[in-house]
Amino acid sequence: MTQHRDVRTAGLETAAEYCVVIVTTATEAEALSLADQLVAEHLAACVQVLPVQSIYRWQGAVHRAPEWQLLIKTRIALFEQVRDRLLALHSYEVPEIIAMPIIAGSSAYLNWIKEQTQKPPGG
């Protein structure tokens, strides 16, 4: 009897130890600065920076504003360090900092996230 791999899940693994942290900033420059810091400090493997349009309630009024969204790929074990670093560097009084678990992903990509978020020896 031959076993067939389900092509929809071939090369995928569950990823309970990984997450995407979502953050928004007012400017592209701030977004890029935060991304650079997180990657340089091995707190993130990759950060994508995207322009977005946000509609939100703040101090009793509804606002609409262009913002820059960061999609930060990291390990859940690093979330508190990522959060603390973002809070220290971010210009907003109450920045959006939320983590969404990666429930499945390419084994190679997840391994890459793990490798890139390890501090180098002596580092």
Distance between the termini: 51 Å
* Biggest sheet character: 4 strands, antiparallel
What best-fitting shape do the alpha-carbon axes yield?
globular
Percent range for helical residues? 25-40%
Rg, Cα atoms, Å: 17 Å
Series of H and E elements: EEHEEHEEH
Describe this structure in words.
The mean pLDDT is 90. The radius of gyration is 17 Å and the shape is globular. The protein has 123 residues and is of the alpha+beta class. Strand 3 and strand 4 (61-75) form a beta hairpin. 24% of the residues are buried. The protein is built from 3 helices and 6 strands. The strands form 2 sheets. It has a 4-stranded antiparallel β-sheet with strand order 3-4-2-5. A two-stranded antiparallel ribbon has the order 1-6. The N and C termini lie far apart (51 Å).
Fold blueprint:
Elements: E1 12-14, E2 18-25, H1 28-40, E3 46-58, E4 61-75, H2 79-89, E5 97-101, E6 104-106, H3 107-116
Brief overview:
By secondary structure, the protein is α+β, with helices and mostly antiparallel strands. The protein has helices at residues 28-40, 79-89, 107-116, and strands at residues 12-14, 18-25, 46-58, 61-75, 97-101, 104-106. The strands form two sheets. The chain has a four-stranded antiparallel beta sheet with strand order 3-4-2-5. Strands 1-6 form a two-stranded antiparallel sheet.
